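ingest -> validate -> predict -> emit
validate: passed (alphabet ok, no gaps, 259 aa)
predict: started
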Amino acid sequence: MVTITIGLLIPLLGTMMGSAFVFFMKKDMSVRLQKSLLGFASGVMVAASVWSLLIPAMEMEADSGKWAVMPAAIGFLLGIGFLLIIDELTPHLHIGTDKPEGVRSHLSRTAMLALAVTIHNLPEGMAVGVVFAGADSNITNISLASAVAVSIGIAIQNVPEGAIISMPMRAAGNSRWRSFLIGSLSGAVEPIGAIAVLMLASMLMPALPYLLSFAAGAMFYVVVEELIPEASSGQHSNLSTIGFAVGFVMMMVLDVVMG
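emit:
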């Protein structure tokens, strides 16, 4: 139980470490570094979705023969649809843009930035929660070490995310501590989402393959809808491609070695 608790909190620590960049960096994050980090985060999320979520979901249904892919396919599409609805209904504002998305609201710019990050981080928390649920059960091939690997991988990619959030807040005139706090709180939704999914999965073990692939679909939505477009727009998009490759391979190796 202690290991699971620590595993659920590790991603938040990664966000806090990234947010702490405001204490060490005086200027805005360079475009080159931001592109590289966005690509890296994308690679980690895609690899975690495939090796830690989709493949275990299909392995759980191996007795179904060629139909073993159906729970993974259905769950994946439901995850995409869920994030699509959340994205359309929640008023939010992405960093670097002035045009809010979602339903019209009178929320402050800071509040909408926080909601954008919440939408982004929710699927990561879901992924951590569901892999720990799988590791805690006796019906999957997911080991506790593999679940910890996913948590560490998410935490590593949360480091640049925390910096990407806190640094613009500092550049906008907020104090270092305020920027750090906002950046750190942006990751608070992850342990909350992880605990919620962990509790739900413990009650619905037969639906675990769907929950695994649901989390994968939600993560893919974030990558395709937000991270990749931001990473590939403008100059230095080749750096985001390199970052993606490094992040993907690192997460793949981490999962296989620790699994």
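The chain has a mean pLDDT of 83.
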